[in-house]
Amino acid sequence: MTAPAQERDPGLQPERTRLAWRRTTLSGTVAAVLAVKTTLHSGTAAGLIVCALCCALWLGFLAVAHHRIRDLSTAGAHRPPALAPRHAAAAAFCTIALALCAAALVL
């Protein structure tokens, strides 16, 4: 007689990963909101361009994060699919570029 197949017990790891994606998204949201606030106070053309870029980068990161959170939520007892390299690169690019744009607005 063969032993029954055991389902994967992921523990809390997928939930921690989902929460990390949400925290990072929240941080990006704060940076984008501060960029808008800074631009509204300065009102320069360069500031408007950088602010628009910050908002576009935030939307890009939001799309990647939402995709990953959805993958982690629907995996259930199964192992979630690995993050695609292009999604990882897009998330890293958006995060770094958003930080640089926010720093440019402050300076």
Task: Give your account of this protein's structure.
By secondary structure, the chain is mainly alpha-helical. The chain is built from 3 helices and no strands. The chain has helices at 13-42, 45-74, 85-106. Helix 1 (13-42) packs antiparallel against helix 2 and helix 2 runs antiparallel to helix 3 (85-106). The termini are far apart. The mean pLDDT is 83.
| Ends distance | 71 Å
Number of strands: 0
Shape assignment: elongated
Task: Enumerate the spans where pLDDT stays under 50 for 5 or more consecutive residues.
Answer: none
Order of helical and strand elements: HHH
Question: Proportion of β residues?
Answer: under 5%
Assign the structural class, choosing from mainly alpha, mainly beta, alpha/beta, alpha+beta, or little secondary structure.
mainly alpha
Percent helix range: over 70%
Radius of gyration from the CA trace? 19 Å
Largest sheet: none
User: What do the pLDDT scores average to?
Assistant: 83
Number of helices: 3
